[in-house]
Amino acid sequence: REQKITIQASGGLSDEDIDRMVKDAEANAADDQKRKDLIEARNAGDSLVYQAEKTVKDNADKIDDAAQADIGEKADALKAALATEDLDDIRAKTEALSEAMMAVGSAIYGDPAAGAAGGPGGFNPEDMAG
């Protein structure tokens, strides 16, 4: 005994409907990516503002007044940019604050490259000869 099942779409989509849906999805993909980029930039900027404020607060005695003021101004500018939809402005202000934080970081923790130069030398195979 043999059984057959045939499935037929009774209310299927026309080719035009399918094409329209594909085009809508493609059009929205670009908007979705822009939105994702904006959200990621805002998250990074917000995180950096928090880190900058905490660093200045915790290390106020090690950071000179000019650097504290510079970081404060750049953090405020970034906060203002975060309230907008301007992705390029958010990225630029995040980068500016990040650079200011790097300069302050080397003042707080010292320059690791300078410390390495004055440290003990590495292995020299010629020292073993003889």
Kindly describe this structure.
With 130 residues, the protein is an all-alpha fold. The chain has one domain: Substrate Binding Domain Of Dnak, Chain:A, Domain 2. The protein is built from four helices and no strands.
Structural descriptors:
130 residues, Substrate Binding Domain Of Dnak, Chain:A, Domain 2, mainly alpha
CATH class, named Mainly Alpha
Taking Cα atoms only, what radius of gyration do you get, to the nearest Å?
29 Å
**Terminus-to-terminus distance:** 94 Å
* Major sheet: none
Domain count, please report it: 1
Choose one word for the global shape. Answer: elongated
User: What is the N-to-C succession of helices and strands?
Assistant: HHHH
Could you list the spans in which at least 5 consecutive residues all have pLDDT below 50? 114-119
State the total count of DSSP E strands.
0
Oligomeric category:
single chain
In DSSP terms (H or I, runs of 4 or more residues), the helix count works out at 4
CATH topology: Substrate Binding Domain Of Dnak, Chain:A, Domain 2
Percent of residues in helices:
over 70%
Strand content: under 5%
Helix/strand/pairing category: mainly alpha
Report mean pLDDT, rounded to a whole number.
84
Any guess at the CATH architecture? Up-down Bundle
